[in-house]
Amino acid sequence: MEAFIHFLKNNTGLKQQSDIDFIIENAECRILKKGDYLLRKGAPLNFAVFVEKGLLKQSVLSSEGKEHVFLFWAEGLFESHLDAMLNRNQTFNIDIQAIEESILYIIPHSIIEHYYNSNTDFALFNNKLMQAHISCARDRVKKLIGESAETRYMSFMAEYGHIAHRLPVALIAAYVGITRESLSRLRSDLAQHKNKK
Fold first, then answer.
1. Angle, nearest 10°, between helix axes 120-146 and 149-160?
2. Which of 36, 159, 186, 188 has the most CB atoms at less than 10 Å from its CB?
């Protein structure tokens, strides 16, 4: 819980210890084993999440059954979807699944909404978070549509290089948007190019 407390104190704009204590008291500690789902397609996302330990993926399945990984969640990540908070019955077309055993803190959206409406610093924090989500989603779509596989792989390494060793090759390929075989060839080509320098 130490990382969760540190995050609340240093990132959310909440200055009163009583507010920090209230969130901690009402947060649920959830442990997911490898392969467990935090969220399945069609379910409402009615909570915020802090990843204390572990690694998860946020993905969608195409109509052909092909997995597309949109994001990876690692230690220190806080996820709160303002649109989900404002549209309580909205369901999401995503799966969120543990890649390895993970310790999460789940905060009900009712608490997020309370502080969003009553604390301007927390509202600013949440608004910045939402802007980052929108920017991230826009960038992901742009990259998948308009950039080469090599550029997408290099973007992956820039963002997730610190956790790449914890990810199966199939998931990296699903994030980059290519097959495992294409990813292997791409890595080999990049390695050869690097050795020629």
1. 150
2. 186
pLDDT in tens, the chain (197 residues): 899 999 999 999 999 999 999 999 999 999 999 999 999 998 888 899 999 999 999 999 888 888 999 999 999 999 876 566 666 667 778 899 999 999 999 999 889 989 999 999 999 998 898 888 888 888 888 888 888 999 999 999 999 999 999 999 999 999 999 999 999 999 988 888 776 66
Pair (98, 140) in one structural domain: yes
135 lies in the same domain as 163: no
Same domain assignment for residues 131 and 155: no
Q: Are 45 and 84 in contact (CB under 8 A)?
A: yes
pTM: 0.88
Separation of CA 149 from chain center: 22
Q: Which residues make beta-bridge pairs with 69?
A: 59
Question: Alpha-carbon distance 163 to 175, whole Å?
Answer: 13
- The dihedral over CA atoms of 160, 162, 163, 167, expressed in degrees to the nearest 10, equals 70
**Residues 191 and 161 grouped into a single domain:** yes
Q: Which domain holds residue 161?
A: 147-197
Q: Are residues 125 and 48 in the same domain?
A: yes
Cα 64 to Cα 72: distance, rounded to the nearest angstrom: 22
